[in-house]
């Protein structure tokens, strides 16, 4: 039995009601809840002193906290987790929310990237939070690779896939590259690339570099290692194996008090540097359906104190290929947002499966 489940069993009916009402009030308005306020809403008549004692017990258990000495109580991250797992009632998806999401799906024809961009904007608008969309990698076999020098510190790689898809990615090459060395690197890659995806190609190249390290020109080897490492790690949006779409930054900033703004800015600094973005898929792979990460439960949001409601979407082979989610303050309306994220993920998966 988990610690939260054990705590839940230890609560009597009065403690459960006090806890539930404190959390629900906090999620609705973000304010601490005092004992006198609760006396007016409890199902049985009980004194403020009795409620204060119950709240003190809940605070001792780590479920409630007090932002100021004289203030009421608010739920801790531990309390929010227990509420989500044991008390949360999931609402039905409203017709208005469903229509808002559906309206984005028919646009842009076969352009999956534009469709996902619109979905991110729609999720942000519907939930009044910041949306997150992790798009699938293009895993078709490669037909041809070419490098083009743009400047001393910028180069373009053109990737032509066997299914006709073409991608142009800008990256920073190692110092000292020449058009000649780039052609050599492209020739080396093309000799190995045919019939292989980018992921497969990287593995083959690592083996080849190990076997033929002395035979490969030093500068060309550097270009290969640097370029492919950039593509695979996703360290920059235009170069990553996955593409991250974040929408609704202003929604998240507007929903916070002034003292929270610096923490929220640190969240977006992390997002914009693309730290740990690949981890979103790993987080969702433990099981199908929506998962909720509160505050420090996800290291990416540990400083900002934000919550993430995220769900994977799958292709026709039932393989997880991406994720959609909503980022917001810990006092998100989880009951409403969970079905929105769930519905969006299922719809995206179906559309991508149909188009493929």
Automatic annotation (TrEMBL):
- Listed GO molecular functions? DNA binding
UniProt source species: Meridianimarinicoccus roseus
Q: What does this protein do, in the record's words?
A: Negative regulator of class I heat shock genes (grpE-dnaK-dnaJ and groELS operons). Prevents heat-shock induction of these operons.
In Swiss-Prot or TrEMBL terms, this protein is called: Heat-inducible transcription repressor HrcA
Database matches in Gene3D superfamilies: 3.30.450.40, Heat-inducible transcription repressor hrca homolog, domain 3 (3.30.390.60), Winged helix-like DNA-binding domain superfamily/Winged helix DNA-binding domain (1.10.10.10)
Q: What's the family?
A: Belongs to the HrcA family.
Q: Which GO terms describe its biological process?
A: negative regulation of DNA-templated transcription
Which top-rank group of organisms is this from?
Answer: Bacteria
């Amino acid at each position: 039995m988990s610690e939260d489940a054990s705590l839940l069993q230890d609560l009597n009916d009065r403690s459960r009601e006090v806890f539930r009402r404190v959390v629900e009030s906090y999620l609705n308005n973000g304010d601490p809840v005092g004992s006198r306020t609760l006396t007016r809403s409890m199902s049985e008549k009980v004194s403020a002193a009795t409620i204060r004692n119950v709240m003190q017990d809940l605070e001792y258990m780590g479920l409630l906290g007090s932002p100021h000495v004289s203030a009421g109580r608010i739920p801790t991250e531990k309390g929010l987790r227990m509420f989500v797992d044991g008390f949360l009632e999931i609402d039905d998806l409203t017709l208005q929310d469903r229509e808002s999401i559906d309206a984005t799906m028919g646009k842009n024809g076969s352009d999956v990237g534009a469709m996902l961009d619109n979905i991110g904007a729609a999720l942000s608008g519907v939930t009044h939070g910041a949306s997150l969309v992790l798009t699938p990698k293009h895993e078709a076999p490669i037909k041809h690779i070419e490098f083009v020098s743009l400047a001393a510190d910028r180069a373009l790689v053109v990737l032509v896939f066997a299914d006709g898809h073409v991608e142009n990615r800008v990256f920073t090459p190692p110092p000292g590259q020449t058009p000649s060395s780039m052609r050599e690197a492209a020739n080396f890659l093309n000799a190995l690339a045919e019939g292989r995806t980018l992921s497969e190609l990287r593995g083959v190249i690592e083996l080849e570099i190990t076997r033929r390290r002395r035979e490969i020109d030093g500068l060309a080897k550097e270009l290969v290692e640097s370029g492919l490492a950039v593509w695979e790690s996703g360290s920059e949006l235009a170069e990553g194996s996955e593409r991250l779409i974040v929408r609704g930054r202003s929604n998240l900033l507007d929903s916070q008090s002034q003292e929270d703004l610096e923490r929220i800015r640190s969240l977006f600094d992390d997002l914009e540097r693309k730290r740990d973005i690949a981890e979103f898929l790993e987080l969702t792979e433990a099981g199908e359906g929506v998962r909720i990460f509160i505050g420090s439960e996800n290291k990416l949001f540990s400083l900002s104190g934000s919550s993430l409601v995220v769900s994977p979407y799958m292709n026709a082979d039932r393989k997880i290929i991406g994720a959609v989610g909503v980022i917001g303050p810990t006092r998100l309306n989880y009951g409403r947002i969970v079905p929105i994220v769930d519905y969006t993920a299922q719809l995206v998966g179906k559309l991508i499966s149909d188009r493929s």
